[in-house]
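Objective 1b: paired records.
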Amino acid sequence: MQVAFFSGVLTAFIIETTKGFQPDAGDVTNRILIAIYNNTMNATTPIDLEKYLRLDDDAYKSAVYRNALLYTSLAVSIVISILATLLKLWIIQHERDVSPSGPLHIRLMKRQESYNGSIIWRLEGCIASLPIMNLIALILFGLFIL
């Protein structure tokens, strides 16, 4: 649940920061009006509107960096959600497989098979990695805020 909320917050930030790839319309309008005013005072140079419509390199690099942090954090959050869902499904299947029905030796074989599967798939490590991955996503988001 926390990961879903965090992903929603990240998505909202991503939507807002993608605006950084375009120059602010108000600033562009002000700079063009100043250029027109300066041109009326000194009509010898034509107005180059293209330079007012471009985003400067520092702003562009900053927007790329900030969006890269947010998208990476969102990707880690999605991986956490997928992994948690798969682990939950595996645990549900495990509980179903080791349910107390049938002869004792068959139940023991199913339990051992399920245990062997948890070792092969490194279930304990997967479960232990979820909080660490969540921390990584939060650190990436923290770097974005700085």
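Objective 1b, second protein:
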Amino acid sequence: MWWGEISVPDASAVRIAEEIGSQYEVGAPPWMSTEIFFRWLRGFDEYISSKNGRKVLLFLDDASWHGRPSEQPALNDVRVEFLLKLTTLLLQPQDLGIIACLKRRYQLCQRGVDLIGDGHFENICRVDLNIAITWVYDIWDRIEIQIIHNCWLKSMSV
């Protein structure tokens, strides 16, 4: 999922997001909210329901936008369970290195744009949504299996 303040993003960016199985959401400020998360969750439930008999158990951490267990929307084929509070670091290997790796590589792409430009840091802000989606998709696709494996091992040993 991509979200930002642009209420009418570049049509090609929306198309690319849809092609990779993602979506673009508008929010001000441009970060996740309970409303956006619940809209995504209902859409995910509809997608799973279309898969004829599939069921999903989805574990969520205590991020504020996930809402409380009593606030969860009615779902047909997705069951939501919450991890114990403050266990994210112990139980979610993505937070131990996978997402950090993705962020580092994305920042390298940004710095590359800065070096190609006139050397001013503000050029990084000129990367449009289309380019950002393409970068993240390509970076995610190239993260080595060993990085993911090591993060899982680290989470199992904590």
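The helical segments are 11-19, 34-49, 88-91, 93-116, 129-142, 145-157. Strands lie at 2-4, 24-26, 56-60, 78-82.
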